[in-house]
Design brief:
The complex is a heterodimer of chains A (222) and B (259). Chain A is of the alpha/beta class. Chain A is built from six helices and ten strands; from the N terminus they run βββββαβββαααβαβα. In chain B, helix 1 packs across helix 2. Chain B has 259 residues and is an alpha/beta fold. The chains are: A alpha/beta (222), B alpha/beta (259).
């Protein structure tokens, strides 16, 4: 059984019939049109799969698999949106999916790195930040700050910190949180959260799909 | 005022087709029924016109239901419009009535519905498809007749609190044993200004607290959702977005509510 997490910028796959094989990843723009999987998630996934699991459910199931606590907040920062799941006493307590005001934050972070030829691993978390509610709107702050004489790297770092703070507030400002998504690999982003962060990597939704795939399904359901 | 029976009858008997915004007092509906008037509920999408045609009259960032009402009022041939602007509706409706009164060549009559006679809430507590029940409740505002052949109440497995959404498709996701709360319950009870009834919820069942975006009821929905031990607050504007659908679907499934 092949699982697929079809994200805006990257698609992740896991073949459950290949023991020991890890997940694979491919840029969405390079995804062959004839790709088919058995079980999919991600905003782009319905076109490629026999069965679809919505992203919040995949995130929650992934969290249940990977986190051994009964109370936690799991935040997923994707290219296009941010979403979180909060568990209390082992049960769902809150959730959110910001696909509109959280638009394109992850995508913009990656775009800026390439455009300005930056290396986020070498940037320090800045003292100051921007009030960023959307990747597109936040770009204006970068341009204005650079015009005011601030180095590009510092301006972009403030932008990244602003995005992290926005995501943190969206998740309910927890004292600690688990982080999911490709931005787990961005030390500037992870370091910009004003709380304890445990990065889980970019395959949490795939792990959630795996849990869904292993769940017995009522007869008659595809 | 429209509540005076003689004045109301004298006025309404001249009309054949009226529109209503919100829920005018039962006296208005009863008189309209008695004279055989055709009633259009302008809060529902009735005409195939772009919502943008309301934009010369209302801001784009405004209650989608009132923008819909304006589009309907502009495109339907009506003899009069009755707008409830009392405690069962909102200031936005009052301002919309003011604007429509100037824009249209027909009377736009403001009412204040303070009805307290309870008709009951059988549909809110029944086990039937949520969309069908909500459609019956909204259609019911055009009739003053008592309810007949009501379905029996069921044990709820989930709750939907709020107003009838502009886009009913969000209701498809709920199981049949979902109880209805909030203003929709007040609608069925024909007491739209009953704020105590509107604030009722069942803490025993997972509940979605819904409001239209940019509606004053977003505050109440969010406030009650915080008080409820197992709730999802949700606001939706014109159409149900895929993320809104996914939130409801995930909330119900992760709460153990089966379709």
């Amino acid at each position: 059984m092949i699982l697929g997490d079809f994200g805006t910028s990257y698609c992740k796959f896991l073949d459950l019939d290949a023991p020991g094989a890890g997940p694979t990843i491919i840029a969405t723009k390079e995804l062959p049109g004839e790709t088919r999987v058995n079980l999919a998630t991600g905003h782009n996934g319905k076109r490629f799969a026999d069965r679809y699991v919505n992203e919040l459910i995949a995130l929650a199931r992934g969290g249940e698999t990977m986190i051994r606590e009964k109370e936690y907040v799991l935040l997923d920062c994707g290219s296009r949106d941010i979403k979180f799941i909060k568990y209390k006493n082992g049960k769902l307590a809150d959730m959110g999916w910001n696909a509109e005001c959280g638009a394109s934050m992850g995508f913009t972070i990656e775009l800026l790195e390439r455009y300005y030829e930056l290396d986020y691993a070498s940037l320090l978390v800045p003292e100051q930040t921007f009030s960023v509610t959307c990747g597109v709107l936040g770009m204006s702050d970068i341009f204005d700050t650079v015009i005011a004489g601030v180095p590009v790297a510092e301006a972009v770092a403030r932008f990244v910190k602003g995005i992290a703070l926005n995501a943190y507030r969206f998740a309910g400002s927890p004292a600690r949180l688990y982080l999911s998504g490709g931005l787990c690999d961005n030390p500037l982003f992870v370091g910009s959260f004003p709380c304890q962060v445990t990065p889980l990597g970019r395959f949490v939704l795939l792990r959630g799909l795996e849990a869904e795939a292993r769940q017995p399904r009522p007869p008659g359901l595809v | 005022m429209a509540h005076d029976p003689t004045h109301l009858a004298a006025t309404i008997s001249h009309f054949q087709k009226i529109g209503i915004i919100g829920i005018p007092p039962l006296a208005v509906i009863r008189a309209a029924n008695e004279y055989g008037l055709l009633i259009h509920d302008l809060d529902e999408p009735l005409v195939r016109e772009d919502l943008e045609t309301a934009s010369p009259f209302l801001p784009r960032v405004y209650c989608a239901i009132l923008r819909t009402a304006v589009v309907n009022a502009l495109h339907l041939e009506l003899d009069a419009i009755y707008v409830d602007t009392g405690p069962g509706k909102c200031d936005c409706a009052l301002h919309t009535a003011t604007i429509l009164a100037e824009a249209l060549p027909i009377p736009v009559i403001c009412t204040k519905n303070t009805d307290t006679a309870a008709f009951g809430v059988p549909l809110c507590q029944a086990r039937l498809p949520l969309i069908a029940r909500m459609q019956t409740i909204t259609t019911g505002v055009k009739s003053a007749a008592a309810y007949q052949n009501t379905p029996p109440p069921c044990k709820p497995c989930a709750g939907f609190w709020g107003v009838p959404p502009r886009d009913f498709s969000i209701l498809e996701l709920f199981p049949e044993a979902t109880h209805i709360y909030g203003w929709a319950r007040c609608m069925e009870n024909k007491t739209p200004a009953d704020h105590a009834l509107e604030s009722v919820f069942n803490p025993e069942v997972p509940t979605v607290f819904f409001a239209q975006s940019f509606c004053a009821k977003t505050a109440l929905a969010r406030y009650l959702a915080k008080k409820h031990p197992h709730a999802l607050y949700l606001d939706v504007d014109v159409h149900t977005t895929s993320s809104a659908r996914a939130k409801v679907q995930a909330f119900l499934e992760l709460s153990g509510v089966r379709p």
